[in-house]
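Minutes, structural biology subgroup

Action item carried over from last meeting: produce the structure token record for Phosphoesterase, dhh family protein (Lactobacillus selangorensis). EB confirmed the sequence was re-checked against the source entry. Recorded below for completeness.
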Amino acid sequence: MSVQTEIVEKIKAFDTIIIHRHKHPDPDALGSQAGLATAIKAGFPDKKVYEVGGYVGDLNWITTEEEIPDETYQNALVIVTDTADTPRISNDRFNQGKYLIKIDHHPNDDAYGDLIWVDTDASSCSEMITDLIDGSKGQLVLTAEAARVLYAGIIGDTGRFLYPEVSSHTFAVAAELLSTGFDANAVSMKLSQMTLPQARLQGYAFDNLQVDDNGAAYLILSTEALKKINVPTEQASSVVSAPGHLQGVAAWVIFVEQEDHHYRVHLRSNGPIINELAKAHDGGGHPLASGAKAADTAEIKQIIQQLQEIVAAYDTTA
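Output recorded by EB:
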């Protein structure tokens, strides 16, 4: 029995299913979560299915989350999507159910859960959820609404099919989702839109980005700078991919100061492997896209130096 079949069997066996995702959600976290929830509800209308995780910010056009009491977790199946390790799971009640399933496409460094399905070759967790639906023999149903949110997750995590994880299968899945008839243009427009403060943040990022001779770049976004631009801290991630469009930038790191003065660290790369660097600073992720934390300016300097060393040692002919 494949792990996908086991997951469907567990879904069939439970009357209450609670789906979690990671903190500070992106389109793939919400798309995989909502896509799975919608497909389960369509296939099993009598089941109680909940999406939890709290505030989703300006991505509430993908889905919104529910507040549920602790007792809902009794005898419930809990599924966590798109989350590599337990500290990143949004809502720490994820382990209060009767059975826990992990579905993810990041490296499986934290093998939590009673049943684990990890596919690091998948472009996104939303691609995996589509495969799960397809393999369920009609027990999970791909509605147009499920397809809409899964498509948002795929194009969000692939940068509109630009990133290395994109495969021919990714395009096949996207075509299948499009065939359900949802408004794909509306999804693309939503993901492309930014507020005026976010646009100003883009300008600030390019004005203040530091790039060394080897193409290692960094940007520090203080709470003071974000307040001047009028961008909430949780929306600062809108600028994370921007440095990658600059010719000559091989890898970059963006530090976003939080209200308690520690920093969220966004690491991205066009070639050099950076997830081991993320792991060394309380983080992790994909080889070319990872997250970490920095406690203070001393740790920021350390991360910048380490990134510069990684980029300097990178063999562009490999």
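Discussion: The two ends are 39 Å apart (CA to CA).
Next step: EB to file the record with the rest of the batch.
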